[in-house]
Write the structure tokens for this entry.
Amino acid sequence: MSAIDTPPAIIRRDQSSETASAPSAGGAALKSWIRALTAIKILDDAPTVTLPALLDELAARHADRPALLGEGRTLSYSDLAATSNRIARWASARGFTAGTPICLLMPNCPDYVAIWLGLTRAGCVVALINTNLVGDALLHSIGVAQSTRIIVADSLLPALTALAGRLPPDTGIWVHGEGSAGDHQRFEPAIAPFSPAPLPETEMPLPVLEQLALLIYTSGTTGAPKAARVTHGRIVEWSFWFAGMMDAQPEDRLYDCLPLYHSTGGVVAIGAMLVKGGSVLIRARFSASRFWDDVVEGGCTIFQYIGELCRYLVASPPHPRENEHRLRLACGNGLQSDVWTSFAQRFGVPQILEFYAATEGSVSLYNCEGKPGAIGRVPPFLAQRFPIALVRCDAETGAPSRDADGRCIACGPDEVGEALGRVLKSSQSPARQFDGYTDQAATECKLLDHVFTVGDRWFRTGDLMRKDAAGYFYFVDRIGDTFRWKGENVASTEVAGVLRACPGVTDAVIYGVKIAGHEGRAGMAAITTDGRFDLAALSAHLDARLPSYAQPLFLRIGDGLDLTGTFKLQSGRLAKEGYLEATDPVWFNDRGAGCFVVCDAELQQSIATGARRL
């Protein structure tokens, strides 16, 4: 039997044992769980069933069917396997084998996927670098990967060139694309001499589930981005799990405009389609104006979203093709209840599958019932497999509260607390484990011991949630210094450090502020200055060091900042005042004009009404 076949006996056993007692109202949800649970059974006693190892089998089965469709380039299943095999042989020939870290800095395109699949087939560990990063932030991400090998798109080469002299002297750089490569080697000619033929195990050992495959960066709750360790087992389990949840079929085509350097857009969306013979339509970025043309003309049946994209679509003027699509499902996270209902009704999308998951963690939730606003629930028959708890937190420190016996205090119905996931040593599921970061100290900070009993260990999500009496979870906010904007986590301590490095800025505190009609929180900075400060210089300083989503949207300039008794900067009062009630002068970061402008009453009104696009 093929590794990607579903065992009929398993389907019959699960369906007969679960659906017989299932209430009809939850039948569709139960089927989703059964499909997902059945799909991942292929991992049982199959330590080498990994996504790159399945490519040759998928190519033999689906051949010329499109796998990845980009703008100007499409890879069939045969093309994808052939390209990945060339890359694997190239990597092996250069000595890039088990554990060799290689950075990948490229925009969304089919070759992006082929490259990391090929490199991981050879045993390499691929660090998926955020394409928005420049300067110190980019240097940091390369550094934590401990890599001296970088594959970069020609369009992003200037960001690396700007780091000349700061990278290790033996750093090797290969440039993908037909643009200028400078003094560096070109990637496509380098792999061209190698055979595209299937890779037998006798030629190159197969990677195993426990083997590290990717580094995916996450901000967490404090500090600069951390590199989360993602194993082959986690990748392939995500792929089959979501294929089951979405009921993926060969006829499906998924629209993917999320960054491929993130786990949802770059691993979950891709893998779920590939393992079932479906296709992925890849776009470099989201565009509300061309979204429906792409979806309709591409024959897309599934849309991978983040909530902000759905909000943009709902807020957009009517599009003549918005109801001509074939979408049967929208799958993603961060969709709030008001947008959920409007999105489903206006565009006629039959099903929305909202989920919550952490790239590196052991907590995941799925809203298979389609309850607007909820991020999911755990069915009673899976409570032991998905152990999740909400515990009370200290409002001042963000640390979990403990009782007199030193145990955490579980939250009651609708009480807000931090979500924890039990780390099960006995679990056979790679996604239920915590593989940590490249930074051991950061790894330890995410673990909590002796939570409810002596010796138990739990993963800290850093997210505040509540659970209603029916068992549905709802996202509330993030703990600590991180807030979410434009679908990205922004670490306020990192942004504050960049601000303080600007001449004339004597101190800075960063916090997120709510803006009506927008998901997450926009960045706002409160700063103190001296005579050297210049707004135009600050704008250029931020552009050179931070991606646009991490730059403060609002700037408050005052004479001093609030301090705690231990001389730590406080942001609570400032965040409550936001940009509307601040007593100090407030400036708006006008990205279109490329400068800060006074945030006067007229501008505030245009932001409040949605007339000003943020």
Observations:
- The longest helix spans residues 77-93.
